[in-house]
Amino acid sequence: MIQLEDVSKAYQMGKITVPVLHGIDLTIDDGELVAIMGPSGSGKTTLMNILGCLDVPTSGRYLLDGTDVSRLSDNRLAKIRSRKIGFVFQSFNLVSRTSAIRNVELPLIYAGARARRHSARLALEQVGLSDREKHLPNELSGGQQQRVAIARALINDPTLLLADEPTGNLDTTSSIEIMKLLDALNDAGRTVVIITHEEEVARFAKRIVRMRDGRIESDQVQRSRSQINA
Hints:
By secondary structure, this protein is an alpha/beta fold. The protein contains seven helices and ten strands. The protein has a single domain, classed as 3-Layer(aba) Sandwich (Rossmann fold), CATH 3.40.50. The protein has a six-stranded mixed β-sheet with strand order 6-7-8-3-9-10, sandwiched between helices. The protein has a four-stranded antiparallel β-sheet with strand order 2-1-4-5, with helices on one face. Helix 3 packs across helix 4.
């Protein structure tokens, strides 16, 4: 599904070029559950932006499902994002005065799609919130808000789910619930990539990619990962 070949990224700050990623080679197969880890400044967020087609490499190639997206136009990238990729963020990014089901519908509203309510209900059912569809975000716990955000990410049936620090604003119990959900979605066939700095979260993944100074420091399959049974 994902293949990065010698990918580098640099940003131009006035007359200064700031390199962020250096020659990244990375392959993620369909159906994997991968955690990408690294300290602040390691390049993991820039890598996530490239994986999510929110940014493009300065050099190198990024193939997503066999398509080289490295040099596509913004419009083409937006279409790929809407069809293939679901995003989950640390801050949930829910509309505060809008019900859970309406928040889930938002990507379909922007796309002008019909039959939105049925699709949103199915997505909420996947995350175990069928009984909370009329609740506003402030009437939900942090873990429930993140589940709504995950349902919204699933509304277009993406093959790739990108989760950026998905447990960063949650307590331990809620964090485990979210990891159980991401694990179940992975077991159902979705490719899940988690960006995290938390070792406890990374231990739930089946593979850990560690970054430092814009390079991949290690890439290991976990022989014994944490069991998500709480």
